[in-house]
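hey so i finally got around to running both of the ones u sent me last week. sorry it took forever, my laptop kept dying halfway thru and i had to restart like 3 times lol. anyway pasting them below in the order u listed, first the sequence line then the structure token line for each. didnt double check formatting much so if smth looks off just lmk and ill redo it

first one:
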Amino acid sequence: MTAPLAEERLSRILDLLSVQGPLRTTAITARLGVSGATVRRDLDTLARRGLIRKVHGGAALASQDQQYRDRQELQQTGKRRLAELAVSLIAPGETVYLDAGTTARQLAQALRRTPALTRTLRVVTHGLDVAYELNGECSLYVIGGEVYTSTYSLTGPDALAAIGRYNYDLFFVGCTSIDPSGHLTNSNLPEAGQKTAIMARSRRSVLLADGSKWGHAGFAAFAAFSDLSAWVTDQAPPGAHAAFTAAGVPVLSAETPDAARHAAVLRPAAIP
């Protein structure tokens, strides 16, 4: 397995701590496949950024809302590339549901850069940041509920009730982690249940996740690989491409020169 690059490692460490809670340095080292010295330097970097607090022999997350704001700076190049690729899957006139989270916000920003397409869309979201980005850019519906501060999202019974009233052409879904056993997982139950409910109302569900999400199991599984229409990523790690292909799910990688052409094949005709 190729060792992850610096910013990818930082993102992986945050995901591990989010899913599993405080971890010893030795456990993080084993999961990432790098040296203990490398992990200790990464933990020092994350501590300086205020994302974690170092505990005896390991580390734990700092406040969740601070984690979300600062994590917007991680993996940004890859997330921008995959967001631009994701836009090519959208047909004019569709009802598009955007998940909450930093990657979904990148997609919202990409949609702002394509106004000719975006003004034809109806966009639904429970992400506060996503709604902020798209306000005034399209027909926009915001699902209400309780604010879940770790992802700036709206969750709970009110959100689930609203989700069930509509149908969606395309759902761009995010995840905390991609379990190689064949499932998408999230770090908390309310959002996991919400993602499952949206997928049930969607004609197509496309995973929008950078390659750092691959390789570990999160707390709550909400979908199988086979429930997806495609996975849009910056670069699929070793083994990931084969696992999704075996499940019948196309992998669209922004690192692949002809990815946009392949994405266009998956895009339906414009809705009259």
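and the second one:
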Amino acid sequence: MIKLTTDRLILRDYCEEDFEAYYKLKTDEETMYYMQDIKLGSREEGKKDFADVLADMKSEHRKFFFLHMELKDTHEQVGSIGYTVVDETPIGKIVHLGYFTYKKFWGNGYTSEALGKLLEFAFTKDNVYRVTTGCLKENVGSEKVMIKNGLIKEAEHIDYEWHDGKMKTRLEYRLLKREWKKWSNRFASKGHY
């Protein structure tokens, strides 16, 4: 079972007792505004989705590494963060990263803090070679989280995605293991890590 800690957060695998929290998070309108493709539509869908998450955690070839984010002091749920393995190569896993948190926690640095710890885990403990992620250009907060953690912009796709009744531009970011090492060493040398 994965359990990571930061100064203010606990990031851990889900357990059976987390269903209500999981369901509440993935049906919250504001939280899931930019993640409509994985927003849950019903309790039945939620139960199946959650059962798949729990089953995958036990799999020899685990694909989903999404973790429950909670405050260390109160254990209040902040959101979820993690990645999906999209390929396993001879030099390591290629994964797609994602995160979503309750609006009341936006702008407090929680997601950046969690992502820093998750990237450390991915590159040092889980044989990840390449992380990819992205967001709609208007989602400035999400892009700031990526930049703050050393991710590198690879592309800007104009009018790429239909969202909320109109075409929107999408940004794509990446981070390779060697880039993360270089970035984290530079960051640590400045006394920030």
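quick thing i noticed on the 2nd:
The chain has a mean pLDDT of 94.
anyway thats it, ttyl
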